[in-house]
Amino acid sequence: QVQLVESGGGLVQPGGSLRLSCAASGRTFSSYAMGWFRQAPGKERELVAAINWSGSMTRYADSLKGRFTISRDNAKNTVYLQMTSLKPEDTAVYYCAAGASGGAYSAFGSWGQGTQVTVSS
What we know:
Blueprint: E1 3-7, E2 10-12, E3 18-25, E4 34-39, E5 46-51, E6 58-60, E7 68-73, E8 78-83, E9 92-99, E10 108-111, E11 115-119
Parallel strand pairs: 2-11
Antiparallel strand pairs: 1-3, 3-8, 4-5, 4-9, 5-6, 7-8, 9-10, 9-11
């Protein structure tokens, strides 16, 4: 079982940046993929980005490529989501998730509690 704790959310103006962090415990961190998802009010949860166990492969939602970057530090058991050029439509609760396996296309089964990101002037 994996325990995940997100941090770094908050209120940011349009065009601003935020970096989310997710600290993991409970399983060998370098053995599984990690992902970031988001859910806006009234919408389904959607994949933002995923990264494989080593950090050598990433994938992104097509609409977010170029603005968001996922990375991981296996020595710190932490995955990050760097968000730039934020838009009001990026407002959502952001969740990190642990993959069932090491590949970036892994299914995700363990979830954090979420962190709110609000983009507003």
